[in-house]
Specification:
The complex is a heterodimer of chains A (about 180) and B (about 250). By secondary structure, chain A is mostly helical. Chain A is built from 7 helices and no strands. In chain A, helix 1 runs antiparallel to helix 2. With about 250 residues, chain B is mainly α. Chain B has a two-stranded antiparallel ribbon with strand order 1-2. Chain B starts with a helix and ends in a 5-residue tail after the last helix. Classes of the chains: A mainly alpha (about 180), B mainly alpha (about 250). Chains A and B meet through helix 1, helix 2, helix 4, helix 5 and helix 7 of A and helix 3, helix 5 and helix 6 of B.
């Protein structure tokens, strides 16, 4: 129904995917306002091409591909790697946490901040693979198509990326 | 007789000494098993190892603090990373999207063209590209062979009065201006890139260390343009001298 341009279907579509799109954009840019602008740009692009929205199974990878491309274009325009800076735990807008206890909420947010910060230590390709595979849950073939690299490279890089991130986290005291 | 031989229940070595001995033996035989564990760690955490290999990994983890920390971090990552997929963009985000899509005025092609033109003009290398095109156009105007004019009788009077000199002369002043701008741009870029290059004879350039292809290319282009601009400048000067009337 969203392909027909029905307003209610479009609103439901936006609500369904906005957290995913914003989350991916946020991990690429590390700036909440840039991520919001990019997410808006992505949804505008989708809206201008409603007829191209794939079926249910292919919808999420398609949206994430558009988001990733928009983020890469944005980073190229900015001509800078995402800077490494102290990320206060409150910056992560995660209202979907099931933790009710404020102390647990803070602990969980701090952990996520640690992981987010450790990800900035990775190489660009390893970080993208972690973002798309471990965080967004895309399949290896989908990631290979999005990044334009062979499936075998994604598989081998995926293991290396996880080890690299685990080592970075171990260095800051997570684990052990 | 040795007491340990008489009493096999008592271990001959303490735990630390035993560990040191194990490490020493491994160092002289297969090498450290930690590297092998790293190749299996992700599959172990994902539960994809067979029983035999999994029990070997577990046995190693009991004695290796570093590998145990690594596997704990991998396990924690497996739990935490998927929770990062969705980040709430804030309370007004949906309304913002709906305003920008459903309620936005339809863009017409003229608006898009204006936006595309604006985007084109604000590309970072646009100044260099315009200078390059201007210099190339100026040189083409001066050095390409001019088409022979048709018979005088078949042309309108104004064209009959034009000679190649009249066609080329108007290009000289802008070509000189472009050449001057290119030389200035080249000076500025050379100063910035000087430290990174080891110039050889002629146009051979060798990057001091891992400079980008774009920097190498732009240096080559600017050096070529400088030469072209220099020869354009000197031919323009010669033209001026020849066109000035001789002193009485």
């Amino acid at each position: 129904m969203v392909r027909t341009g029905d307003e209610l279907a479009w609103e439901a579509f936006v609500r369904q995917f906005q957290s995913r799109v914003f989350g991916l954009a946020y991990h690429y840019t590390t700036q909440a306002e840039d991520a919001r602008d990019l997410a808006q740009e992505v949804f505008i692009r989708i809206y201008e091409n409603l007829a191209l929205i794939p079926d249910e199974d292919g919808c999420l990878p398609w949206i994430l591909r558009i988001t990733r491309n928009a983020c890469i274009d944005h980073l190229r325009r900015r001509k800078a790697r995402p800077p490494l800076w102290d990320l206060p735990a409150e910056e992560l807008f995660d209202l979907r946490s099931t933790e009710r206890n404020p102390e647990d909420l803070h602990f969980e947010a701090a952990r996520k901040g640690l992981v987010h910060r450790a990800m900035q230590e990775l190489t660009d390709l390893n970080r993208e693979i972690i973002l798309l595979k471990e965080i967004q849950g895309l399949g290896i073939e989908e990631i290979a198509a999005i990044l334009g690299i062979p499936v075998g490279t994604v598989k081998s890089r995926s293991h290396r990326a996880r080890l690299e991130l685990a080592q970075a986290l171990t260095a800051v005291g997570m684990g052990g | 007789m040795d007491e340990t031989f008489m009493n096999p229940q008592q271990p001959p070595l303490g735990p630390e000494a035993s560990l040191d001995l194990t490490k020493a033996i491994l160092a002289h035989t297969s090498g450290s098993p930690c590297q092998r564990l790293q190749t299996l760690a992700c599959e172990y955490v994902d539960g994809e190892l067979d029983q035999g290999q999994a029990s070997l990994v577990r046995a190693h983890l009991e004695h290796c603090h570093a590998c145990s920390a690594l596997v704990t971090a991998l396990t924690e990552m497996k739990r935490v990373l998927p929770t990062l997929a969705q980040v709430d963009p804030g309370p007004w985000f949906t309304q913002r999207i709906l305003r920008a899509t459903l309620h936005a005025p339809r863009r017409d092609s003229a608006f898009n063209l204006r936006a595309a033109w604006f985007k084109l003009l604000h590309r970072p290398r646009i100044a260099l590209e315009i200078a390059y095109l201007g210099a190339a156009a100026g040189m083409m105007g001066l050095y390409l062979p001019h088409p022979t004019l048709p018979e005088a009788g078949s042309l309108p009077a104004i064209v009959r009065t034009l000679s190649p000199q009249h066609l080329v002369q108007p290009l000289l002043a802008p070509a000189k201006r472009v050449a001057g701008a290119v030389m200035q741009a080249e000076k500025r870029t050379s100063t910035a890139l000087k430290g990174a290059f080891l110039p050889k004879e002629g146009l051979e350039i060798q990057a001091a260390s891992g400079q980008s292809r774009w920097q190498l290319m732009s240096y080559k282009v600017l050096t070529w343009l400088k030469r072209a601009a220099g020869s354009l400048h000197s031919s323009a000067k010669a033209e001026e001298k020849s066109s000035k009337p001789a002193n009485p």
